[in-house]
Amino acid sequence: MDVNNALLSRGCPAVISTSPRPPPKTLRRVPVQERSAERLTRILDACADVLDEVGYEGLSTRAVATRAGVPIGSVYRFFGNKRAMADALAHRNLDAYGECVAARMAGVRRGDWRGAVDAAFDEYLAMKRTVPGFGLVDFGIPSAPDAMPDANSDVAERVAGLLAAHLDRPLDKKLRRTVLVGVEAVDAVLQLAFRAHPSGDPDLIDETRALLHSYFAGSLD
Known about the structure:
By secondary structure, the protein is an all-alpha fold. It is built from nine helices and no strands.
């Protein structure tokens, strides 16, 4: 299943098509024409597939070019090395996550913080289970932390903004801190859950959800 199909299968918008949005620092050349944007999408899709097969250490620009069916020069036109390529994939994942969480929250009653928190949590679970390459490169590169520093902070900022809008409350320091702690807790416990089972140990997932509800209640009730 490719990335768009993984998103569309659960009602998310197809945010990853011909206009991926990695930050300029990871990209040697920003695609302008649709054909060039489509090629960049194919390269990132291939990067995700190769990651699933051989891991980050085995990832190479040549393997990605072969999988994408493009000349190696096309990869280097966009990326200087595999780290920049994986970093762009991580940023694409973050964009997709933000769009999908927003779509899920739109179906939650305004002011219902538990439903909104569940939307963010459930979308993260869904991406871990269905999006190619996400298990190794979700929103950052574990073996190359300097490539996308503070990935959890970036995730927390996205979620905090969506939560503030849903609850009609200011995006202040307290909410940002609360969401960041929640994101860090989820990241730690779900790593354990997915080490225990390929789809995530259901008991540990339930414990993680309960932990989130209990912690957020102190700030949002």
